[in-house]
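Pasting as-is:
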Amino acid sequence: HPGYGFLSENADFAAAVIDAGLTWIGPPVAAVQAMGSKIEAKKLMAAAGVPVLDELDPDTVAAAQLPVLVKASAGGGGRGMRVVSDLTDLSAQVQAAGREAQSAFGDPTVFCERYLPSGHHVEVQVLADQHGTVWAVGERECSIQRRHQKIIEEAPSPLVERIPAMRERLFEAARLAAGAIGYTGAGTVEFLADDDGAFYFLEMNTRLQVEHPVTELTTGLDLVALQLQLADGERLDAQPPATRGYSIEARIYAEDPARNWQPQAGHIHLFDVTCATTEFDLLTRTGIRLDSGIADSSTVSIHYDPMLAKVISFAPTRRSAAGVLADALARTRLHGLTTNRDLLVNVLRH
C-alpha cells in the first residue's frame, strides 16, 4: 500500500511492485501513467467527453486571454503554479514555474489555462472494481487553501448543494473519467467549478486523498478497507450507499501564518485533542475524529511535509460541523511549535 505520498502516483514504482510478484494496492500501471501528465490527461478526458479548460501555449497567449494560470504538467500540491495577469510577466513566470517543477517532480514541463478568479475546487471520490463497476461516492469541496494547497475540506460541497442537478453531472463526468482509463481501486477526479456550476477537469489523483475521512464519515465507508478488497478482486454492489450528514476536515500545519506561512520545526512537548471521539475510525453521531502523525515528544523535522494532523468533524449540518470543529481545535493543546491552529479556528467561525 503506497499511502498518499509521491510513491502512490509513481508508475515506475507501481511496475516494480508488480514485477516483484506483490499485489499493488492501486490502479493499473497504465492508469497511473495516463494521469501522470496533466497535459496528456486533459487530452484523454476531452476525448472521453469530460469538460476541460482549453490548454494555452505560453508562447502564444494574448492579452485578451489574461489572466492565465501557469501549471506544472507533472505537478501536484500547488507546486509550479502561478497566476499571471500581465503579459510582460508571463515569460519570467513560466521559467520560474519550470524550475520549481523540475526541482519538485523532475519534469520542467508547464502549460497555461484560463484562470477562474472565483473558482471552486470540487472533487469526486471514485471506487472501481475489476469487473466494470464504477462508484462515485460523494463529492468534496476543498476551496479553502493557502499557496494553492488545501487546509479545510468538506463533504458535501456547498456549491454542489446549491446548484440544481450539478451533482448528477459531476458524478457522470467522474465515472466517464475513470472508465476512460480502465481505472480500478480508489481515486479522486478533481474539477474546477465556477459560481454558476460549470466545471472543468483538473486532474485525477490515482491514490487515496489526504481528505478521504470526510467522505468516509458521510458515507459510512472505510475507503482503506475497500482499497484492500478491490485489490483482492472483490466486487462492488451495483450502487454506492447514500450519503448522510456533513463532515469538515482541518489540516494542522507546522507553519506560522503571521510570518508568510514560514515552516516550523522542533520538538512537540504536548499534543492533546481533548474533544476527539475516535482516531482513524468512523463516526455515527456528532463528534470529532483525529488522524495524526504526531504525539507527545514527537520531533518535527525540516525534511518532510508540514502537515502534523487532521482533525475531522461529523454533524447533521454544515453549520454544526464547523462549530464542533472550531471548538475542538480551540481546545486542542499543542505545545512546542507554532502552527496554523488559530487561523483554522477563525476560518471555521467566519
